[in-house]
Design a protein that fits this description.
heterodimer, A: 79 residues, alpha+beta, 2 helices, 29% helix, B: 170 residues, alpha/beta, Hypothetical Protein Ychn, Chain: A, 5-stranded parallel sheet, 7 helices, 5 strands, 39% helix
Chain lengths: 79, 170
């Protein structure tokens, strides 16, 4: 757990590929550069997908953690 | 935006429900990664551009397709029902039944519908090109298709794909 406070939270629990990345992309549009989005998913594929997504988009994946069958990501909008 | 924008070019040539998913899933995922995406719809992929999407799936000639029941206890749902071709080809409306079972299974697992994924592609500016030749052959008109699609031919697609990073025929 980091002490970063997300500016917005996106609930993707229950959603399957590719919706978590699609919704993350859309949610990030609403944020300013430097702000942080928290995304919560239950799709186990979201871990490699979010890592790949961050590599491709250049946005920063600050955190990726698993617990209680949920996956929580903190993404910083970099551009 | 990452410095080097990548480009994905897809050809969608099959319009059954099972084959409708891959181009829209890959297209929306790639567009979500800020890639430029174009899908060329040709032959049986063309009906996927219709305003009123009616993709069906057939177990006939599709031997690897699992036949699962979307209701009942988990053990029952996991059974793969062996349906002989004589039934899949002769029982009236078997295709409709298989289609509704598959749609229900997808819904139970929270997979987005083909329509939803197509809407996402539209929203994310995925370029959709309808094959002019196939339209002429099968008698489709531009009015039947979603407004966001454009019309083109082989040369138009090749020119689009010429500098793509990934090109797939689906």
């Amino acid at each position: 757990m980091s002490d970063v406070t997300p500016d917005k939270t996106l609930d993707c629990t229950g959603l399957m590929c590719p919706m978590p990345v699609v919704k993350t992309k859309k949610a990030l549009k609403e944020l300013e550069v430097g702000q942080v989005l928290e995304m919560v998913a239950t799709d186990p594929g979201s871990i490699p997908d979010m890592e790949a997504w961050a590599r491709q988009t250049g946005h920063e994946l600050l955190e990726s953690e698993e617990g209680d069958g949920k996956y929580r990501f903190l993404i910083k909008k970099t551009h | 935006m990452a410095e080097d924008t990548k480009k994905l070019a897809l050809i969608s040539a099959r319009g059954t429900l099972d084959w409708a998913y891959p181009p829209f899933i890959l297209g929306s995922a790639a567009a979500s990664m800020d890639w430029e995406v174009g899908i060329f719809f040709t032959f049986y992929g063309l009906p996927l551009l219709k305003k009123d999407l009616k993709a069906k799936v057939s177990p006939l000639g599709n031997p690897a397709m699992p036949m699962k029941m979307p209701f009942g206890p988990e053990g029952f749902q996991n059974i793969n029902w062996p349906i002989p071709n004589i039934i899949t080809s002769n029982v009236p409306f078997f295709e409709d039944m298989a289609t509704s079972l598959m749609k229900k299974t997808f819904k139970n697992k929270n997979v987005a519908t083909v329509e939803e994924l197509r809407d996402m592609c539209v929203e994310l500016d995925v370029k959709m090109i309808a094959c002019q030749m196939t339209m002429d052959v099968f008698g489709f008109t531009k009015e039947e298709f979603i407004d966001e699609c454009e019309i083109g031919g082989a040369a138009a697609f090749l020119s689009y794909a010429a500098d793509a990073n990934i090109t797939l025929f689906i």
